């Protein structure tokens, strides 16, 4: 089993996507209240080699020798990938070895204010920074940032990147009712979008329980309202979990294994990843679908969020 690669996973947006995790769980510059990976344990903006570069390259090389090419190689995982000081080197290596495979970077975008981070991501085909708030109070509330992050620099960093970038920049905004959906919030977000000029804005909401319990998902009607406010021609609403079942990489055998396991006893995503020998992000995709269609339910306990089959 690989330590730094996961999947290919049935990505909601990228088809068959091989994940690359360049930081260890859970190192991030933000501690978002909706984070599916739980609380950030190391809140930092320090860039360094969190996992050995040579080990990542060795795994990628091995993967390519033994498997068909994925649609995308996606830098994501259980922390912020641009905290890795070697992300540019890994991207360059993939582009050299597999020029036909697209590269995506899912990032919170907070480090794009640094020139070396912007330059590292330029060869990627798709960069998806997130921006959930453009007002300091809401930013603090929803993203609980590292103290060294300045919101204006964060927004300017994404805008500066977009000016030089020739790939596709999709800005992701996650809406939590009562947290970042006030008229003031949406007006500030609209201004930030006008500054950044992303190729597309992807509107999203909570799929599953986040790091805190008293938050809820926005309704589809609310997302439609916000889509209209931000500009219908540039905003798309991310498909609901149930639609993800339609992606070609959705594996029914993995779904069955998850259901059989939690039918015997409730499990956390971490338990399932360990029992089934796959990455937590892979597990999370299936849990989203199953919870979205009402096959399983979640409950919060001291050790984390547990999943069990619904008792109908
Ligand atoms: S930026 Fe991503 S990984 Fe970091 S806390 Fe937020 S949702 Fe989690």
From TrEMBL:
Domain of life assignment: Bacteria
Gene3D superfamilies hit by this protein: Aldolase class I, Winged helix-like DNA-binding domain superfamily/Winged helix DNA-binding domain
Organism: Desulfocicer vacuolatum DSM 3385
InterPro entries for the chain: Aldolase_TIM (IPR013785), GTPase_Obg (IPR040084), rSAM (IPR007197), rSAM_sf (IPR058240), WH-like_DNA-bd_sf (IPR036388), WH_DNA-bd_sf (IPR036390)
Name this protein carries in UniProt: Wyosine [tRNA(Phe)-imidazoG37] synthetase, radical SAM superfamily
Keyword 4Fe-4S: yes
Stretches assigned to the Radical SAM core domain: 14-245
Keywords: 4Fe-4S, Iron, Iron-sulfur, Metal-binding, S-adenosyl-L-methionine
GO MF annotation list: 4 iron, 4 sulfur cluster binding; catalytic activity; metal ion binding
Cofactor names: [4Fe-4S] cluster
One Pfam assignment: Radical_SAM
